[in-house]
Task: inverse folding
């Protein structure tokens, strides 16, 4: 079992590390969009797409970079008591609290999948079967949801990014759970 845990930790940490390192540069994409918007508003006619594209870029930056920040331990913690605890006590507390985070992420993923199915024109109550039907060819994409702004982009791409980011976050949380179990067993990670 520890071999499986170590392999899972190694694969998930490697994937999230690489994605996180790429997403670090997403801030420059966001800055470029906002710079273009400022120049365009000052010298030319304002663009319709810049504000919403900046929001989409920020969502991708934040959601896809989240697992990397958990991996590095740079997420926000209440350090009033936690900082003084022993590594074993920290592992026990982390082991318990990560279950709440995993449950929360599962709820978020279900909502994101439902929202993405809706954005692809599915009006039913079984979003997972809808995506399964898309793969097998028994379901069709309906009238796609668009933003209500003047630019009117389709919303399914950013909602798909949200699903991927939340799923990577879930995998990273399971990796952290496995790390805590190994710490409690006294094994090196």
Result:
């Amino acid at each position: 079992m520890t071999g499986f845990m170590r392999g899972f930790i190694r694969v998930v940490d490697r994937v999230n590390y690489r994605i996180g390192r790429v997403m670090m540069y997403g801030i420059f994409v966001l800055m470029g969009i906002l710079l273009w918007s400022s120049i365009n508003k000052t010298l030319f006619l304002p663009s319709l797409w810049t504000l919403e594209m900046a929001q989409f870029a920020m969502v991708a930056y934040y959601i896809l970079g989240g697992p990397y920040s958990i991996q590095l331990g740079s997420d926000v913690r209440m350090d009033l008591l936690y900082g003084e605890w022993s590594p074993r006590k920290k592992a026990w507390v982390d082991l318990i609290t990560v279950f709440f985070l995993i449950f929360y992420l599962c709820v978020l993923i279900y909502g994101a999948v439902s929202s993405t199915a809706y954005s692809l024109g599915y009006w039913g109550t079984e979003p997972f079967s809808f995506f399964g039907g898309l793969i097998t060819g028994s379901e069709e994409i309906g009238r796609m949801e668009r933003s209500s702004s003047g630019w009117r982009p389709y919303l399914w791409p950013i909602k798909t990014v949200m699903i991927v980011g939340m799923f990577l976050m879930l995998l990273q949380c399971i990796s952290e759970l496995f790390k805590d179990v190994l710490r409690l067993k006294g094994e090196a990670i």
Residues 2-184 form one domain. Residues 54 and 177 are 34 Å apart (CA to CA). The chain has a mean pLDDT of 93.
